[in-house]
Amino acid sequence: MKVTVVGAGYVGLVTSVCLAELGHLVTCIDIQQEKIDLLQSGQCLFHEPGLEALLEKNLNEKRLSFTSNPHDAYSKKDIIFIAVGTQEKHDGSVDPKYLYVVAHTIAHYIEQDVIVCTKSTVPVGTNEIIQQIIDSRKPPNLQVEVVANPDFLREGSAIIDFFHGDRIVIGTSNPKVAAILNELYLPLQIPIFKTDIRSAEMIKYAFNAFLATKMSFLNEMARICENVGANIEEVAYGIGHNKKIGYDSRFPMETKTLAQLSSLLNEPLPLLEAVIQVNNR
């Protein structure tokens, strides 16, 4: 398939390189020309095990290219992945304004029916706004379907996570679109979980909040370990060796966004609030 990935940051670059490795024709677009020039010459912008070798391989085999030209990126493509970074607002929540800018640009340059997949972590309801923006500005004869397809890549193991992940989440109510994405990811032979678009958005937030909860438990255990003379790193390894628990723990800004959402909905989340307090302490 002919694919464009918007954003040459961590998620965007890894996604571009790995989709090209699957055999798709991938164009990665970024507004920073200096970054594009470096990537087109085969220079990776950050260290990620295995990434630079795959970058060079797929550039040489002409399955991967980089551009800052929106016409080259968006015209005559089957699927467009949005993987631009999001900023944090003053209240700690996620600001999706850059995604809306991308949506405006996509609508202006597309020349055929296309699927737009959002990989960026976004507040619930964001993809519906992206759909509205594109529908209001695209040529009337074209069909665009916006899909939530969150990433679950971890720094340091992103290549492994892409090719050997636990699941792929696809949020769409259109079975034909889901079938196309299933075909895109088919070579990975990873379980694909199809759901509605808002549930897919929420899955990423719930996943990150759960990881933050694990981290708060370890932080509490660290305080006990200090008092009894135990080593928290060895304790964490000992319990993390159980597959039901695992090692992955982080405290992303999306946890704050989820807490803010609960406040706006007047649905208190005392466990999440406690997680934030424990991790801050």
Describe this structure in words.
There is one protein chain. By secondary structure, the chain is of the alpha/beta class. It has two domains: 2-195, Rossmann fold; 205-280, Orthogonal Bundle (N-(1-d-carboxylethyl)-l-norvaline Dehydrogenase, domain 2), CATH 1.10.1040.10. It contains twelve helices and ten strands. The chain has helices at 10-21, 33-40, 51-60, 70-74, 97-109, 126-137, 158-163, 175-185, 197-228, 232-240, 254-264, 270-280, and strands at 2-6, 25-29, 64-67, 79-82, 87-88, 94-95, 114-118, 144-148, 168-171, 192-195. The strands form three sheets. It has a six-stranded parallel beta sheet, with helices on both faces. Helix 1 links the parallel strand 1 and strand 2 (25-29). The protein is globular.
CATH topology of the largest domain: Rossmann fold
Beta fraction of the residues?
A: 5-15%
CATH class of the largest domain: Alpha Beta
Number of DSSP-assigned strands: 10
Distance between the termini: 48 Å
Shape assignment: globular
Which structural category fits the helices and strands? alpha/beta
The tally of domains stands at 2
Number of helices: 12
CATH architecture of the largest domain: 3-Layer(aba) Sandwich
Overall mean pLDDT: 89
- The residue fraction in helices comes out at 40-55%
Q: Main beta sheet, described?
A: 6 strands, parallel
Whole-number radius of gyration? 20 Å
Oligomer: single chain
Order of helices and strands: EHEHHEHEEEHEHEHEHEHHHH
Strand order of the largest sheet: 3-2-1-4-7-8
Low-pLDDT segments: none
